[in-house]
Amino acid sequence: MRVAVAIALGAMLLSGAAEAADYKVLRTLQAPPPIQLSSLPAGTTARPVEFARVVFHPKEGEAWALAYESMIAVGGGETAPPPQLSELLTWDSGRMDGETATFARAFDDELKKAGFAAAGTVSLFGDKQDAADLKVAVLVDDIKGRFCVDCPNLFNRKGVPASVVMTAHWEVYSSLERKVIARIDTTGGANHMTKLQGSIIPPVLTAFREHVRQLLASEEFRRVVTAGAAAPNSTPPATSQSTIAFSAAAKAGGIPQASKSVATVFAADGHGSGFLVSQDGYVLTNQHVVGGSKYVKLKWNDGSETLGEVVRADSRRDVALIKTDAKGRAPLALRHTTAVQGETVFAIGTPLDERLQSTLTKGIVSATRDYEGQLFIQSDVGVTNGNSGGPLLDEKGAVLGLTVLGLYPDKSKSLNLFIPIDDALRALALKPAG
Asked: Helices (H) and strands (E) in the chain — how many of each?
């Protein structure tokens, strides 16, 4: 075969003698007509959706495509690939991940056209503007294609430069619920009318877009993306200028009781820790724990879960405020006096794995210091990923600060920094009532 077939999907390429049946099917392959997709009804709110992964896994050794250099007329204006220049492609690469970013751009484009909400974009400074709870992945377990890599555009003829037909299985995953909440199958594909110029990615993406539209048209998908899109509570978010007065009439109840008021915080991109500071249901955590999420899920040490709304955040001080239903839980007492070097302190949080919730570690205050223009409490108390946002407590169980940063975590586990509680309150314009 003289044609060099360029394919960016990876190793799913060439070889194999063409069986007559496979050749005939692929030679005449045409995609069905595209569906007519209606946009979301006016006034419908959809939760942001992030495209996470595409996997191709047809049967091993399956004849999946026909590639050729030009078309020949077969009568009535219809065209077909010339047998002497055709090559049958077989699938010999096993399970293969597609280039996620390429397919994600097509996915987001179709979402926006239909009135759905795509995940927030990543800024040039590396932060995501609005993380998505809902993540979508797709498995393509059957794909058939016919590709003419050097054919011209044929808008006025029955033949087309390429046709791709697929069978796809979609999964919608909720980061907050930590499970797949919908499974949807789509079939079909699309004819591609533009000259390929050596790459078969454009027609594959054209077919992929048709499958995205089928996904968006399904009642199941529309149900899960519109469910829970409204705010979980009626308390309006406070503006950055206003001061929130919260009821924090709490006395230190000792270390054993403190864990009851510390939660694991699940956001779109992982988990951290947080703690209740008021009877009104306000929870403090780090801004980097919630990221760009508007809503988070909190799991308490008794196993119960509540939904929370991020009502305020300060990225410079790395603190965030969540409003949830406290369900009668007592807030932790807040200590407003300075941490003393050498005093015993405790940290509570969920390090590394959610199964390690309410892990308690003990250390001392190593120092209070200015680090990169911010005041921190330094301690050797053991914390790691997942502890972020959890409380640093004195021996009576009163909060001195929030876990935020490990210095040189790859070299030392004893150099950790904590945000003083009063600094966190000021950054979020929080003020104890009375």
From this structure: 7, 23
Residue 331 phi/psi, 5-degree rounding, is -70, 160
Q: How big is the chain, counted in residues?
A: 434
Closest by CA to 356, choosing from 380, 385, 319, is 385
List all residues 6 or more positions away from 350 whose beta carbon is below 8 Å from its beta carbon. Answer: 264, 271, 272, 273, 356, 357, 358, 359, 386, 387, 390
What tens digit of pLDDT does each residue of 238-249 get? 444 477 766 665
Tell me if 275 sits within 8 A of 399, measured CB to CB.
Answer: yes
Go through 3-16 and write b for each residue having 16 or more CB atoms within 10 A of its CB, e for each that does not.
bebebebeebbeee
Nearest residue to 54 via CA among 7, 109, 100, 108:
100
Question: Which amino acid makes up residue 121?
Answer: T
CATH 2.40.10.120 for domain 244-432: yes
| Partners of 53 in beta bridges | 137
Written as six digits, the tokens of 244 are 């929130």
- With beta carbons less than 8 A apart as the criterion, state whether 394 and 400 touch: yes
Burial (Cβ within 10 Å: 0-12, 13-18, ≥19) of residue 380: middle
> Phi and psi dihedrals of 44, rounded to 5?
-80, 130
DSSP string, 208-268: HHHHHHHHHH-HHHHHHHHTT-S-SSSPPPPPTTSPEEE--------HHHHGGGEEEEEET
Asked whether the whole model's pTM tops 0.85, one would answer: no
In CATH terms, is domain 20-226 a member of 1.20.1070? Answer: no
192-220 pLDDT tens trace: 887 777 678 889 999 999 999 999 999 99
